[in-house]
């Protein structure tokens, strides 16, 4: 296959738990996945490592200071209707200040940030092959890494 045409992009998504095992999740407003629930994250910049991307994107979106610890999952996410294709790298992270709470710093991209249990996240996936109320990468995470 040649090098011409569209290529998948890389997204890094932060899984940030609290002391109760809940994770930071927000409902997207962005055109891609509007209304769907996701975790903080975004595009990997040229030359950036996964941990730095997770930390930067989380700070930009939520104001949380985190430490990215390890890659825990990779999903292959094809947005057929939007003509987009992403490889999503999920990073397990921890807050550097366990008392700090997420803030809505990009109101044009996210409705707000909340603490959700994994049961809440699985429930948002729905019971069919559709993504339910989850952003495609998170739906694929739930489906492929139960």
UniProtKB/TrEMBL annotation:
Key words, A-Z: Hydrolase
A biological process term (GO) from this entry: dGTP catabolic process
InterPro entries: Nudix_hydrolase, NUDIX_hydrolase-like_dom_sf, NUDIX_hydrolase_CS, NUDIX_hydrolase_dom
Keyword Nucleotide-binding: no
Molecular function terms, GO-annotated: 8-oxo-7,8-dihydrodeoxyguanosine triphosphate pyrophosphatase activity
GO cellular component: cytosol
Keyword Hydrolase: yes
Domain annotation Nudix hydrolase: ranges: 5-140
Domain of life: Eukaryota
Database matches in PANTHER family: 8-OXO-DGTP DIPHOSPHATES NUDT15, NUCLEOTIDE TRIPHOSPHATE DIPHOSPHATASE NUDT15
Family, similarity comment: Belongs to the Nudix hydrolase family.
Name by which UniProt lists this protein: Nudix hydrolase domain-containing protein
Lineage of the species this protein comes from: Eukaryota, Fungi, Dikarya, Ascomycota, Pezizomycotina
């Amino acid at each position: 296959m040649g090098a011409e045409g569209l290529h998948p992009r890389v997204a890094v998504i932060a899984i940030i738990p609290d002391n109760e095992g809940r994770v930071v999740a927000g409902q997207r407003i962005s055109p891609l996945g509007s209304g769907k629930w996701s975790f903080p994250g975004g595009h990997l910049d040229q030359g950036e490592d996964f941990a730095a991307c997770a930390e930067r994107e989380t700070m930009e979106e939520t104001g949380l200071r985190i430490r990215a610890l390890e890659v825990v999952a990779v999903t292959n996410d094809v947005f057929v209707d939007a003509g987009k294709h992403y490889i999503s790298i999920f990073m397990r992270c921890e807050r550097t200040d366990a008392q700090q709470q997420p803030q809505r710093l990009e109101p044009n991209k996210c409705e707000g940030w909340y603490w959700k249990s994994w049961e809440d996240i699985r429930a948002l996936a729905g019971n069919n092959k559709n993504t339910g109320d989850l952003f495609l990468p998170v739906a694929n995470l739930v489906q492929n890494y139960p």
